[in-house]
Structure formats: C-alpha cells, structure tokens
Automatic annotation (TrEMBL):
Pfam families the record matches: DUF2112 (PF09885)
Organism lineage: Archaea, Methanobacteriati, Methanobacteriota, Methanomada group, Methanococci
Protein's UniProt name: Methanogenesis marker protein 5
Length: 146
C-alpha cells in the first residue's frame, strides 16, 4: 500500500479510486478533520493552533498571503508524506477546488520537486475520455505495487 497524494487535494472522486486499489489517499479533508476533532484547539471557529503558521512557513515565504500559508500548513505535510501522486489538471472549479490558484500552483510545484511517481491527467471532456482516464489511473495505481 502506497500513500498517494491527490490533486485537487479534496477530490472525493480521485480519493475513492485510490482507495479502491488498496492505497491510502492523502487529502486535505482528512487533515482538516483531524484539526476540527483535536482537543488542542482552544477556539474552534479558527481551527488553528500556534504551530500552524510556523508549519506554513516551511512551504511558503512570509511575503506570501496568509491564506496560502494556512493552506500549505495542511497540504505541505501531505506532500512530504506522499509516495506517489495523481494530478488532474484543467479541472473545473467544482472538481475538488481549493479556492486559491496561488496555493494550487505552489502545490503542483512541490509535487514536481519531489522524487516520486506522478500521474498527470487532463480533466475529461467526454464519457469516453473519462473511461480512458480511469484506465490510466488504474494502470498507474497497479504499477505502484511493483
């Protein structure tokens, strides 16, 4: 079983495919869930600890907007943990959107920098394209076991 980072990092469709092939999807939803349920949070509406901004600085400079650093404090550790990645490019905003193009660019950059297998796929424009993409993802995930 490999830990597979998915992009967009909250795409339930990609996470489901990764799980079906016996791998662990690394997605922001799980990281947020852990934060929300953590007893460490004193102010649940903020869902932030004193350490979170420091974690974000590992991935984004101080000049970067605070929202990017905040997102990267969750996404960055997932990329660090990843052993592989599935990246869907040119997807519509409703397909696992993070809501910040600067975060998306930084995330894709960190994925490219890491030495791991990465499958880059184009968002499908037809049912036939969707079938081809599922086959590509299947082949990629099966190859991770070898």
């Amino acid at each position: 079983m490999k830990k597979v980072f998915i992009f967009p990092p909250n795409s339930l469709i990609l996470a489901d495919l990764v799980e079906r092939f016996g791998h662990k999807p690394l997605m922001i939803n799980n990281a947020i869930g852990e934060k929300v349920r953590s007893l460490e949070l004193d102010t649940p509406p903020l869902n932030i600890t004193d350490e979170d901004p420091k974690k974000g600085l590992k991935y984004a400079a101080i000049e970067v907007p605070s929202g990017v650093r905040g997102r990267m404090s969750l996404i960055g550790p997932l990329i660090d943990e990843a052993e592989a990645a599935v990246v869907m490019v040119h997807s519509p905003i409703g397909f696992g959107c993070v809501g910040c193009e600067r975060t998306n660019e930084l995330t894709k950059y960190l994925i490219r920098r890491k030495d791991m297998p990465v499958l880059n796929i184009e968002y499908p424009s037809s049912d036939e394209d969707a079938k081809i993409i599922v086959k590509k993802i299947t082949t990629f995930l099966e190859s991770l076991e070898k």
